[in-house]
User: Which sequence fits this backbone?
């Protein structure tokens, strides 16, 4: 008998930024507790991008929810650009878990114009290799 009978038995999807129009600037989402989970990913959903817009997203971790967050090595996507055809595209970042760092958040940098952007964190109870 399998450990989990349905995908929804093992994963949880947390909306950390609902799809909204994001202007130029830098923002971070709230931290998500990964205690008890074995894997994590960030899912970045892009809609319309203004001419010349750019988006950078990276994962950061901390030992506590309100603690100091640091970039996770290998936890970023290549810059998404309107001119590169990224509008309407979705990207996933597989986030390497950092021992002792139970909280993860997304750090978002939007350049130039507005972009419709949503970010989700996927927590997995049964990481398979």
Assistant:
């Amino acid at each position: 008998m399998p450990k989990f009978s349905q995908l929804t038995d093992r994963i949880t999807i947390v909306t950390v930024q609902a799809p909204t129009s994001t202007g130029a600037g830098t923002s971070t989402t709230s931290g998500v507790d990964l205690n008890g989970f074995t894997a994590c990913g960030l899912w970045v959903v892009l809609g319309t991008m203004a001419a010349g817009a750019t988006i950078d997203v990276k994962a950061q971790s901390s030992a506590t929810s309100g603690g100091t967050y640091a970039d996770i090595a290998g936890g970023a996507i290549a810059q998404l650009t309107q001119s590169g055809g990224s509008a309407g595209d979705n990207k996933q970042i597989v986030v390497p878990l950092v021992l002792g760092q139970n909280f993860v958040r997304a750090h978002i940098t939007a350049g130039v114009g507005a972009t419709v952007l949503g970010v989700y964190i996927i927590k997995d109870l049964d990481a398979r290799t």
In short: The chain has a mean pLDDT of 87. Strands lie at 11-22, 25-28, 32-33, 39-49, 54-62, 70-76, 80-81, 90-95, 103-111, 115-124. The first strand starts at residue 11 and ends at 22.
